[in-house]
Amino acid sequence: MVQTLAETLKPSYVDWKKIHGNYNPLLNLVRELIGVIPNCDPILEIWPPGFRTYNLLVPNMFNLPNTLFGSKSFKASMGLAMYASSKAACAYCTAHTCSFALRRGARVEAITGLRTPKEDAVVRLAERLAQIPSTLTADDMEAVKPYFSAKEIEWLVFSISMMGFLNKFMNAIGVELEQDAINDTAELLVTTGWQPGIHSQSGYKTTNSALPPKDNLMTYLRVIRQAPGAVLWEKKWTGGVPGNYPSAARYLEKHTGYSFPILAPVKEPRVIRTLTTVLRDNLDKQLTVTGLRVKMYAGYIFSVMASNDRLKPEIENAAAALSPQMDGEMRNRLQAIAQTEVPTDGAAGREFIAAWQQLGLTEEESAALLLAVAASYSPSQINSAVIETTMMHLKPTAVVETAVWLSVLQLLSRLSSYYSLVGSLG
Known about the structure:
Layout: H1 5-9, H2 16-34, H3 41-44, H4 48-61, H5 66-69, H6 72-86, H7 91-103, H8 108-112, H9 117-130, H10 138-144, H11 150-173, H12 179-189, H13 217-238, H14 245-256, H15 269-282, H16 292-305, H17 311-322, H18 328-338, H19 346-357, H20 363-376, H21 384-393, H22 396-424
Helix pairs in contact: 2-13, 4-11, 4-15, 6-7, 6-9, 6-11, 7-12, 9-10, 9-11, 11-22, 14-15, 16-17, 16-18, 16-20, 16-22, 19-20, 19-21, 20-21, 20-22
């Protein structure tokens, strides 16, 4: 019985040779950061805008390579924040962020729970912002202020938000954890109660256990060697995209039909430019396989399930421009589907599809909404029935596109939760 979408999608994986031929600097840069080239790459490239989205977000939301060459204390803290925000959501990301944090200089004790007050403040910020709904408080934000500048706190938030994307995609798809990542972190993580779950279905064993090495001169030299090639790709993808919100709003209005004021509080140019590009690509009528109507419906379902009062009206307003069919009656129906139990057998999955066809949706659209419901939980509730029903009606490109879109929304959910709290505090 198939347990993950990743396993089902294998016949559609893009060949590693082709990916290396096209994007070798990007892949090698990630390998320097976490010791492996992630298994998600040939999956994301099934829908090429998904691969582009991922490779734009990672360096820019983590401020790389600047973070790598900056304060040793801060980059260790960022790694710890990434790790803490992943623990409840994705075992795959927990292993990768553990490796990232240790390579950047985080203490083993910070991973296992014997933390300093500074480390405790970072973990609390990350864990509470990552909860659904967010439980971040003013006290949590005050707790990190003695240790970081306002700009550093914002970069911590960007990194936690980025993990929202990675947690959602890797867990929803069920990406298989690499053996090298297991070797780096499993023996340490198991002392915290970690198990890889769906990300290592046949069980796991370490074949060469050793903690990952910390950054050194050779790390920096290898990163410098790969950076120019990665920068060329980024410039190609973001060419002409502005780095401030007023201009980005006009750009998005022109290219998608909606200005996305949810981005207005972001002041960091590279983050604005990146998020603007990502929204443009994910809402491009020429690039979408699922169609914008189903993306708006799926987005509304996610916003309801995430209990995010900032993201929900944003999707409603975007839908008014991109999918006018999402009227008040349809929103009520979508809200009802968000509260539907995930099917646990094939018959229930078929009933789900049939019920939504009666409301005017196609089989493909109905299957995408089923995937949206199951994937919007954190961790996801994608079971064999969901996989069977989804793959019966959706092309692999549509599966990947839907998972990428929900992942973008989880990033925006974390980011908007932080800025909403900041705004409420004046």
